[in-house]
Every structure is written in C-alpha cells, then in structure tokens.
Model the fold of this input.
Amino acid sequence: MWSARLVWNTPENALAARVRERRARGDLLDLTEWKPTNVVITYPADELRAALARPDPTRYEPAPLGAPAAREAVAADYGAAGLAVDPGRVVITASSSESCSLLFKLLCDPGDAVLIPEPSYPLHDYLVRLEGAVPIAYRLTYDGAWSVDGASVEQALAEARERGARPRALVVVSPNNPTGAFVKRDELARLAEIAARAELAIVSDEVFAPYAYGPDPARRAPVALAPELTDAVPAFSLGGLSKSCGLPHLKLGWIVVGGAAPDASLARLELVADTYLSVGTPVQESLADLLALGAGVRASIAARVAANRAALASGLAAAPGCSLLPAEAGWSAIVRVPSVRTDEDWAAALVTEAGVLVHPGYFFDLLAGTFLVVSLLPHPAVFRQAIRRMTAFLGARG
Done:
C-alpha cells in the first residue's frame, strides 16, 4: 500500500543504539549538531520579533513566484555582496529542499535521472527519489584539494542511459557539505559543456556560500549567472535563510534562475509554485529586515566556525596519524583517521569509550580513506572538551 520511492523500514543501527545508550548517561558531547539555534549563538531576538510583527497578519495576496518585496530583498542582498541579480529572476520558496523539489518537478518525469555529487550531505538523494526520479552519483576527487571528476560525470550519464533513465539535471553543491569546496570556473566550463551536450539543467545548491573562509577568484557563484553557461544550459542557484542568516525555523528559501530560456523556466515554475503557495506571507514581507538582521547572526556563526576549526587543527596535532582536510567554506570539518578501524567502528568507539558523537565518513559517501566528520557549530567550551576527548582516544588507539 506504500510507494517504493524510499526504503521505509529503517531499523536502529549499531551506532544509533550506542548513541541512545550513552545519551541516557547524560555525558555525550555532540559534534554532529548543525542547527545554529541549538548552540548558544547570540540572536537579536527583540529585533526579530519586531520584524515579524510588522506585517499585517490579515493580509494575503498570493504570488506564486514570491511577493515582489521579497524578491527585491533577495536581489538586494546579492547586490550587497557585489553580485547583480534581477529581482524578476528570483523565485521565493519555503526552503532550499522545496526549491529542489520544485525544480525536479519542473525538469523531470517519473523515471528520469538526476546526477548528484558524492561525497555530499545525503539530502539530494531523498529529494530526487521523492519526485519519482532516479539519483545517479558522480564523484568528487581529492588530491590535496577537492574537484569534480569530469570522467565520473560522463560515467554517470552512461549509467543512466543503461538503466533506461533519461538524464535531466546535474546537481552541484557549491560549497559542498562536508568538503567545503566551491565549484571553480574551469570545472563549471567542463560541466556546462557536458550539460549542453546531454541536454541537462544545472541545479546549484549554494546555501553555504556566505561562509567562505576567504576570497578566491577561481570560484564561480552564483552558478546560475556564470558566463561559462551556454545558451543551451538552464541553470538555477539556491539559497535560503536557514544557512545564510542562521534562521532555519523561519522557512524561506530562494532560487535564482539563469542560463538558457530563463523566461520559459520562470513561467513553468510559476505554474508549479502556484499549485502549492507554500511560503508564508509574514516572513516574505519581513524578509528585507530578516536579511539585514541575519548579517549579524552570520558574522557570529562565521566567528564560531573559525575558532572551532582552529581549535580542531591544534588538537589534532596531538593525535598521530590524524589530519584535518583543507576546506574553503562551510560548517563542517573532515578528519582523516588511521585505517586500523572502519569509520563506523571509530565513531562507535568514540561514543562508547570517549563520550563524543561524530559522523562516520560513509554517511557522506567519503571514500579512499577513513574519515570522521564533525560540526564546527557547537559552543566553544563544549567543542574544546569534545576535541580533547576525541584526540586523546584517537592518539591512544591509532
């Protein structure tokens, strides 16, 4: 009686059981927390309340692509970063996940294929499946820096065709979570050539773009407006309040529409979005204020991430065989650990014996080594204590 889009029977695995048992003791330090509202970040609560109280709560003027003021606010926010975005090319959604869902509805019929990157956060796989499409992975490679494996993209296209799935879209995550790598100009040029030849659209998830650790002229963002895209490649860049302003609970995201045939994309997206009208009016009317207030929250998060990343790098110096992989942006860090155990065994042992919760690398499809992934968001006192426990355990057992 249920659809076969997902595997619905997901029993508790061994790691989850250990986490549950250790949490019951009350001394588990969690380095997998990615919700900024849960890690003692200072928010301008009074100003946020005032911003949300200003709209008329009785007013409702549905606009499928988003309220004009909200679209203008997003464009102005890009403009403040030196990026020219036409408000008419902005679509307001309830989240970046909904942005993906709308775009997969726009681009795919049931059974079509969407190419998604590995390693990456395992969200897009679910979003593709929930639209009745087929996710097919292409690889990112690491040789001191992360890059898109162009040959793997070609192999993913061939796999889709062998499975009878028509390739329709290619997802990039820039910067990637957890690698923290941006798509570079030369990579995008190669991807645009492949996409034009294969008649693919490019969907670029850029929610962590505001958290670059420094400038780099080789980067390309927003991808949807990149000159490397030809007239044959529709392109879409995604953002949202959840990451850019640390406001996941206010449920607003956006799509910047670019590349080939943007007017045709917008007209079709308008029909799809009009079917749902899922974005609340008050948050749209408050958006300009929320983006302004969010800049301060973003600065606090960026400072937290920088301090915790420095503490992690310093702590790992005491753990032989362990190293911190370089990154360009984001809230995550990848730690290479000795291959004397699997990543899942390391994660389970850290929970049971050290009282520290981290993600095993397989959760993100990290291959070619043994890796653990940690969030850089926890409160510094919690983070430093967890790193001391973790590095002491890794150093003694590695």
Q: What stands out?
A: The first helix runs from residue 14 to 25. The longest strand covers residues 134-142. The mean pLDDT is 96.
